[in-house]
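Exercise: predict the fold of this chain.
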Amino acid sequence: MQSPGNRSSKRTEVMLLAVSGMCLRPYFSSFAAVSPTLTNTHVLSGHQVAILIVLPIAAMGLGGLVALFVTGSNARLLGFLTAVLALASLARGFSSPLGLCAAGVIAGLSIGMANVLVPSYVRSYGAREKALLMGVYTSALCAGAAIGAQVTPMILVKGESWNTALGFSAVFPGVAAFLWFATRSNKPIMLTVRKANDMPHWRTFGPLACFTGLQGILAYLVFSDLHPALELRGLGVRTAGSHSAISMLCQIPGALLIPVIAVRATDVGKPSAVTAVIAGTTLLAVPYVPQSQLLSLLIVQGLAQGGLIGLALLLIALAVRDEHCPAITSSLAQGLGYTLTALGIALVLFLRGTPFGEHWEQPFIGVVVAGLVVSGWKAAPQSSKSRCATAV
């Protein structure tokens, strides 16, 4: 039976996981809501908007790899990272286009490093507990994205400037930073040099990196492009924001329930494949379904997309069991994964600027879904056989 102190500590960990997840995505969804205004008012060109979408995602990949060399207090480090993210988000309220680029790099680095540290909080739990805890964290990610997508258009509609709308996203990481520092960890943050024999084999983190990166392409296409795509379908700014927010809110139950259901299966790869196919096909259907059916389609897409995000983190959590491997495997999987995400989105944005953009984007998403099916299938059995899992 657990002591009251242990139960209180676990409740604190759950709360911190939820708060951390909620602060890491409004940066992206708020910019997606503002980007049509920036281009329509000629504040930024289409190419500049594309750069500002890709830049923080590429920085996330770099931040994930940098986290390989940091050890010590996760609480103190996460407090520092969320404080930096809050400052970067606030700086967007006063920034020129060059300042927005700098803020994007800083925000991406801090988000990438924070993402890597989460699995270390759940390494001591069993598979079902990990699924639940990672579901809570992923649900919070989706909730934060939905809040950013809904609140930002409301600020714009009230007549506030785009700077104010973007700067509002600093509230979430500011609260998270306060709570992390309130844990009062006395352990220092240190740099370490990883040895070659500390690194897991490519067969361990390779499929995880591919699955993380490919689901990230779908996720950030939703975060970055869903709102503008709905406006192109003829929806108003507020209606498009509401539809985007509803879809992202539907990611919450998907992120919470699908990993819990998947971990009960004999092979996590099967539910991963089904979820990937549903998320991809519903995203492809957005430009074509009748406007009256858009909301229903977005609800299904949100459930599947949330499940994919949760499955990516669950597979990483299942792949590692001991004390040092969570940071290493998570860093490699997410660092390389988000680098793949940035490259994929950059390719999509490039194709949109060519005469064949409309024809190539849909086959590209189909290739991404096929890659998710294969990498998810390969990552699932490796998650129970990795070197890290057996080095206890």
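Check your answer against the key: The mean pLDDT is 76.
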